[in-house]
Design a protein that fits this description.
two-stranded antiparallel ribbon; Fumarate Reductase Cytochrome B subunit; mainly alpha
Length: 531
């Protein structure tokens, strides 16, 4: 007999033989007709071999997610102990609603039927105690692991995969309303994301420390609890799991800095120094070159004098010798590689960072290239120093870049002319304050970046022998100095080499050694011993 297409039979009919109606009335399936789940049961006696009810008939999204989970995978392997729908939700006729406080409170015990060790740790934790206290916002297993599509922690799609842990924890610890209500610091997640660990995780490096690496996964205890992994007596051991010997000689120091004004004094002063010096320096550079661009553009536009010919210049002065051009080429290559790979760590979501981070989960391409470029830049710098020491001829050329008091006057007059304060173009030395500012900025920047970069690269040694604030201090200076150096190269140096109307589209000295730019070829008595 074909299955009837009429409405399912009333539950009372089924209740004549099956005493499930009483249980059903108290369950989440209250009001669901038996025939909705038990198909082909209108006939009596029931035909043999009828397929058992499938939860997917009504709950297909949940079942689909479950089928992608680790639990479903175990069932498919033949693991009879692996949980199915009724393991967690109970008998289909006694299923409790999942929105009630009691159901939520019972989730840890449900999971603990299989995960007893994790349950014991959870019950000891601040989260577990909050659940016992009937705090509805307290997280339970499903808040972190998900409900149906539970994946292994090593699965990159898992909500507890190392690169996703900060976001998972941040659902509560980054919620301002929630943290304010319970007196929890609201910016612990944001400060972690700004740390090297946070940036590296966001960039796709699963091997670095996440929230759980320090706080553990389930047995999360307050920092004042002697059993806590972040208790002052235990934090050196916790950090030592990755950084051997970390904090063995000095206190580790605060990890989550809540208030910027409570950061270590050196870190705070370094940040404020660069926040003042960067806009001031770059602003002055922009003002200087904007005036220069306007002056020269108007002069070349309305004067009868021809502009320099760059391809085949009528006048060419040797500015860079072959050895100097090789050094400059390696310096340029290493510098822009460092800029690209360094800022990719801070801005991993940017389109230009994506090529570097494509293999970050399996091999740290970005960090490897960054360190190679750093070694190249430092090697070029050391070679430059050695050449100046051993080569008298080159040393005499580079001595002209030593700053002198007349440079102050040249800068004042040069800026005044570019801003329209002076009508006549003042004298400018062949190696003026423009070249000297570039050179000594590179010297200073290379020294600072090499020093701080070494402390960050040798982080195990740094954390073993120095307080933690040295790492924070080095990272702060390393980042802001990189910002200053990059902007200075773009605003100051590239204008002089490329966008200066006197040599546009480019001063080829760095390629050919000769520059078409006309410079003063004599010493100006009014300016003392010139260059």
């Amino acid at each position: 007999m074909a299955q009837s297409k009429s409405a399912p039979s009333p539950n009372e009919t089924c209740n004549g033989c099956h005493e499930q109606e009483t249980k059903l009335k108290a369950s989440a399936h209250k009001g669901v007709a038996c025939g909705n789940c038990h198909v082909k049961h209108e006939e009596y006696p029931h035909p043999a071999g009828i397929k058992k009810p499938d939860c997917a008939q009504c709950h297909s999204p949940q079942v689909e997610r479950y089928n992608n989970s680790v639990h479903s995978g175990e069932v498919k392997k033949g693991n009879g102990a692996a949980p199915t729908c009724d393991t967690c939700h109970g008998n289909v006729h006694e299923v409790a609603g999942t929105r009630g406080a009691e159901y939520r409170k019972g989730i840890p015990d449900t999971c603990g039927m299989c995960h007893d060790k994790e349950l014991a740790d959870f019950n000891t934790s601040v989260h577990g105690k909050a659940v016992v206290q009937n705090i509805p916002q307290a997280p339970v297993c499903t808040d972190c692991h998900g409900d149906h599509q539970i994946l292994r922690p090593k699965n990159p799609a898992s909500s507890v995969y190392p690169t996703a842990v900060a976001e998972t924890c941040g659902r509560c610890h980054g919620d301002v309303k929630l943290t304010t209500r319970f007196g929890i610091n609201s910016n612990t997640v944001s400060t972690f994301n700004e740390s090297f660990h946070g940036m590296a995780l966001k960039a796709g490096q699963p091997a670095v420390a996440s929230c759980a690496s320090c706080h553990t996964y389930h047995k999360i205890l307050p920092s004042d609890d002697p059993r806590s992994s972040i208790h002052p007596r235990n934090i050196a051991t916790t950090c030592g799991h990755c950084h051997q010997g970390a904090g063995s000689r000095f206190q580790i120091g605060p990890v989550h800095t809540v208030d910027p004004n409570r950061q270590p004094v050196p870190v705070r002063y370094a940040r404020w120094f660069y926040l003042l010096i960067i806009p001031g320096t770059i602003g002055m550079m922009g003002l200087h070159h904007a005036g220069d661009l306007l002056r020269k553009t108007l002069f070349l536009r309305f004067s009868q004098k021809a502009a320099p010919v760059v391809v085949r210049p009528l006048f060419a002065e040797e500015r860079m010798r072959p050895m100097e051009r090789w050094q400059h080429g390696l310096l340029v290559l290493s510098f822009f590689t460092l800029v690209w790979t360094g800022f990719a760590l801070h801005y991993p979501d940017a389109w230009w960072a994506k090529p570097l981070l494509r293999w970050e989960g399996t091999w740290p391409v970005r960090g490897t290239i960054h360190r190679i470029a750093a070694v190249v830049m430092c090697s070029v710098s050391l070679a430059h120093v050695l050449i100046l020491i051993t080569n008298k001829d080159l040393r005499s050329r580079w001595l002209t870049l030593i700053p002198r008091w007349p440079d102050v006057r040249e800068f004042y007059e040069g800026l005044s002319w570019r801003l329209g304060i002076l009508g006549k173009k003042p004298y400018q030395s062949p190696h003026s304050y423009i070249e000297k500012a570039e050179y000594w900025a590179v010297v200073w920047g290379t020294f600072v970046m090499a020093a701080t970069g070494t402390l960050l690269w040798a982080n195990n040694w740094t954390l073993t022998h120095l307080p933690k604030w040295w790492i924070d201090f080095s990272r702060t200076i390393h980042f802001y100095e990189a910002v200053l150096a990059t902007l200075a190269i773009v605003v100051w140096h590239l204008y002089v080499v490329i966008f200066d109307p006197e040599v546009y589209p480019m001063d080829p000295a760095w390629l050919t050694g000769k520059s078409p730019r006309r410079r003063e070829a004599h010493h100006d008595p009014a300016h003392g011993a010139g260059d």
